[in-house]
Amino acid sequence: MKLVRILHLSILLGLLAAPLAPSFAKSGAKTPAKAKQTGTAKPKVETHHSPDGKYTYTTVVGDPLKARIYKLKNGLTVYMTENRNEPRIQTYVAVRAGSKHDPADATGLAHYLEHMLFKGTDKYGSLDYSKEKPLLDRIEALYETYRATTDEATRKSLYRTIDSISGVASTFAIAGEFDKMIGALGAKGTNAYTSNEQTVYVNDIPSNMLRRWATVEAERYRNPVLRLFHTELEAVYEEKNRALDNDPRTVTETLLAEMFKNHQYGTQTTIGTVEHLKNPSITKIKQYFDKYYVPNNMAVCISGDFNADQAIRILDESFGYMQPKPVAEFTFAPEKPIAAPVRREVFGPDAEMVQFGFRFPGKSTHEAKVLSMVDMILSNSAAGLIDLNLNKAQKVLNATCGPWILKDYSIHMFTGRPLAGQSLEDVEKLMLDQIELVKKGQFDEKLLKAIINDFTINQIRSYENNSGRADAFVDAFTTYQDWADHVNHINELSQVTKDEIVKFANKYYNNNYVVVYKRVGERKDLVKVTKPEITPVQVNREAESSFLKQVNAMAADKIAPRFIDYKTDIKETKLASGVPVYYLKNDENELFTLYYMLDLGKRHDKELAFAVNYLPYLGTSTMTAEEVTKKLYELGCQLNVSSSEDQSYVYISGLQKNYKEAVALFEDLLHNAKPDQQALNSLVQRTLKGRTDAKKNKNAILGALRSYGMYGQFNPVRNNLSNEQLQNLKAETLVQKLKDLTSYEHRVLYYGPASANEVVSSLSAMHKTPKSLRAIPQAAAYVPQDTKTSKVYFVDYDMAQAEILFVSKIKNYDQTWAPKLELFNEYFGGGMSSIVFQNIRESKALAYAVWSAVTTPNKKEDPHFVSAYVGTQADKTPETMTAMFEIMNEMPRAETNFEQAKRAIQNKIETERITRTGILFDYERAKRLGLQSDIRQAVYNSVPNMRYEDIAQFQQETLKGRNYTIMVLGNKNKIDQTKLGQYGPIETLTLNDVFGY
After folding, report:
1. In terms of Cα–Cα distance, which of 358, 352, 345, 266 is closest to 516?
2. Are 196 and 99 in contact (CB under 8 A)?
């Protein structure tokens, strides 16, 4: 599905599932904001010419990406960085046109255009464009009339006419041709997103398909045809309703609306208003496209395995047809200063939270740079003031902050969740108190150096992946940042002094903020997008345009697949104690990752699982918990813990030069942790509050409901310590379990630059274990439920949408199923060109999100399941379920889609490279499934010889006529219970039922 990316920090702030146990150091550091260079000299920019003299490009001295920046004759900017780690290329096509550029009377336009640019042009997506075009012109004119009409009876009549003509026009449309072409060439992650400043089109392609991708991608901007408009508009309606059901999003939109009374950052949202969505204008969308989708306002950003001199010729040949046009500079009325705190309340079913923000100048300013440093002093997920004084001290349930830095303005956002009995105002004050510490200079100056270390490490990690490299280009281009400034950014940050930070904080952090209190209650102003009457349209999935045939016939060099050889790719050795070590060399950089891994989890010992989460709050006899955290952060290392149903591990990662000191500190903590009953009591209370909050969060409820449907009452979500057991825990008991952790059978995984001998030698001296390791105890078993008859589990939740899950147990893991399972999933429910997506969304406009698959279990003892999901408007639930069952029982045959699915799997496997720690964890997965070799090899060898009849038979065995456990989350007053009951007896579950507490 296509994705709208609203930059409102929901991910940064962990709003949906905030962990109670903070990690010892950053886990996925926030990207620092970029700033105009001041205080240091810019790196030198050098100009070069291609060997044929046709192209000129620039590079920046000292750039770790060795990026080339081209400007084609038509003004198109091209960013390139070569990366030979895998034969794939990450591509982004970025347009400097986002929701802030939407007309005030047609908000959501940029986002809707993004959706429509997957529908084709006059060359593809149509059986006969000459016959289709007059119908599309009539639809466009009717929408303009509909938009200008206020009489409801007349509007309904007009919409019936639009629906009727759209049905006729659809007989000429070929749905999903873009996705078929892109999928067939082996693309992954095909998507797009719209935000305030930009719209970006995303693909990860095999390196031998650059020319084919460029041909398809360039064509989509030549003459886009807005076909299948009203069914895709319904998908956007669904997306809007999903947004309305998202309380944290509502909080941030409210905050922005109060902070920006003039600027579009606050006056309009990316998806748009309900009123504007109900009154779309194809004409305005076309005008927007003509205005902003011009080469001098666009960039192609690529990173991967290619020859730059050849790649620029391919891109020029493909995109060179585009004609430049003047693009007016975006202007806005400046915001007035905020003189006193602005306070607002919003209500909804999700747990309470508070969010506030301060406004700053935009990205090109020096202030944005200093803001980034202030943010990390306050919250770097490890040793910031908020991290230590509030999260580690357990004074709140969770608190954090993050910068939101755009071109015109920046915001520093703070978000907190309260403990039981704690007011939102109390949480607000505690976070404001941390700002006061910065204003008074009450932070260690050594923290600044550690922050620069952190930025550097996370940039290295980001640049390990093509997506991180290419995304840096997108960010620079869409915010008008010179690449030399980007390269010099961390160096510039390192020049910021403590004195400057203190002065900055005193100037900018006062009573000039906006705060929003999210309280639990009914949202009075909720206006959902109502369901229009839509007749299913044809998708003509078997048809192929001549353009598609031409693209599929384009020659491409063959790339040989590379499979993991577990015996040669991973070095297996042992410590002096006999503990197995699985070693993998890092030849890329100076970072290491070290895991201690045990097949011991919550199913074996629920107290141990809780003890692992307790570890971050402990110190030793010589160091407090805070001192441990600070020391690790200064070393450029992070320590994390994890406990799942069947596995626990602790791992440390960071700079290899500090490996021994960090591991020694870790070993000391693990074996000499000092019990702290007060810390435990606080953690228990926070856990109880977290449980209460989870019962208010629809995502958490849906996850618990799925677990209940698959396993019954004894399931992974319900298998926890009871509230009473939690309250009776003793610190000494948990600490002993931590000390005993490495007394069980376990193994070491290492990925880093040190040699295997160095790792074994150092760990043999440092890693403390008893002479004989204890065997892993027997685990409690979750029993997958046999679905002898269909049944419905219903949980009532106040929301505009209904979320529906279907599950049914098949049989225990069968590795011989791998080829047909992969091919079936790709064909049936794997993406935007899949049968399920085309039927449910493209043809019938019943859902925004929909998928179906036969799953592969994590262990050989576990079964495969049929799983399916659909998120739809509550009042569409009956017809959506009918459509889902129809397609699962009678899978449509489409030979062209089937052949495309085969090509997609082959191309993906040929160019997929599992690397770094991924190799170690792939081996772990293989062992759990009883595999001796890379299962992808069996898939690759079998798929080319498979026929449609093979997956048709697979569908008959796994889906057709099967009984299902159906799980529905939605508002009982909006879902027809009688019609729902036609699928099986309904059992309404309480939140206590699904969570077990």
Report:
1. 345
2. yes
Angle at 723 between CA 719 and CA 725, to 5 degrees: 80
Give the pair of three-digit tokens for residue 465. Answer: 């992946």
Here the tokens at position 981 are: 């009951």
How far is the C-alpha of 22 from the C-alpha of 798, rounded, in Å? 31
Task: Please say whether the beta carbons of 582 and 570 come within 8 A.
Answer: yes
pLDDT in tens, 50-59: 999 999 999 9
Q: How far apart are CA 162 and CA 845, in angstroms?
A: 15
Owner of token pair 């085309």: 838
Residue 104, pLDDT score: 93
CA distance 533 to 251: 32
pLDDT > 80? residue 17: no
The alpha carbon of 787 is separated from its chain's Cα centroid by a whole number of angstroms, namely 33
SS (H, E, C) 14-47: CCCCCCCCCCCCCCCCCCCCCCCCCCCCCCCEEE
In 10 A of CB 995, how many CB atoms?
Answer: 21
Average pLDDT, the chain: 92
Mapped onto helix, strand or coil, the DSSP state of residue 663 is helix
Q: Which domains does the chain have, with CATH numbers?
A: 45-331+529-552 (3.30.830.10), 337-520 (3.30.830.10), 566-766 (3.30.830.10), 791-995 (3.30.830.10)
Is 773:744 a contact under the CB 8 Å cutoff? yes
| 8 A C-beta contact, residue 97 and residue 292 | yes
Whole-angstrom distance, CA of residue 295 vs CA of residue 588: 36
Q: Output b/e per residue, 248-280; b: 16+ Cβ within 10 A.
A: bbbbbbbbbbbbbeebbbbbbbbbbbbebbbbb
Question: Is residue 965 a contact partner of residue 595, using CB atoms and an 8 Å limit?
Answer: no
Q: How far is the C-alpha of 194 from the C-alpha of 407, rounded, in Å?
A: 15
Tell me the two tokens of residue 927: 């062992």
Residue whose C-alpha is closest to residue 135's, from 156, 164, 155: 164
DSSP 8-state class, residue 829: T
Q: CA of 633: how far to CAs of 132, 447, 517, 655, 751, in Å?
A: 62, 9, 33, 11, 20
- 618 phi and psi angles, rounded to 5 deg: -110, 150
Q: Which of 213, 210, 215, 194 shows the shortest CA–CA distance to 293?
A: 194
Confidence band of 542 (pLDDT split at 50, 70, 90): confident
| pLDDT surpassing 80 at residue 5 | no
Pairing relationship of beta strands 801-812 and 747-752 according to DSSP bridges: unpaired
3-state secondary structure of 205: strand
Task: Render pLDDT for 261-276 as a digit per residue (tens, 0 to 9).
Answer: 999 999 999 999 888 8
Amino acid (1-letter code) at residue 300: V
Structure tokens at 394: 């357990």
Quick count: other Cβ atoms within 10 Å of Cβ 521?
12
User: Of all residues in the chain, what percent carry a pLDDT higher than 70?
Assistant: 95
For 311-360, write each residue's pLDDT tens digit.
999 999 999 999 999 999 999 999 999 999 999 999 999 999 999 999 99
In single-letter form, the type of residue at position 872 comes to T
Give CA–CA dist 662/654, Å, rounded.
9
Residue of higher predicted confidence among 800 and 491: 491
* Residue 913 DSSP code: -
Q: Look at the block and give the residue holding tokens 């203190």.
A: 502
> Comparing C-alpha atoms, which of 707, 670, 295 is closest to residue 477?
295
What does each C-alpha distance from 67 to 59, 83, 131, 733 come to in angstroms? 6, 10, 47, 55
| Alpha-helix residue ranges (DSSP H) falling in 495-639 | 498-508, 546-552, 566-569, 606-614, 625-634
Angle ∠(942,947,951) on CA atoms, nearest 5:
85
Q: What H or E segment, with its residue span, contains residue 640?
A: strand 637-643
Question: Of 852, 843, 840, 828, whose CA–CA distance to 882 is shortest?
Answer: 840
Render 401-454 in DSSP notation, one character per residue. Answer: EEEEE-SSEEEEEEEEEPPTT--HHHHHHHHHHHHHHHHTT-S-THHHHHHHHH
For the question of whether the overall pTM of this predicted structure is more than 0.85, the answer is yes
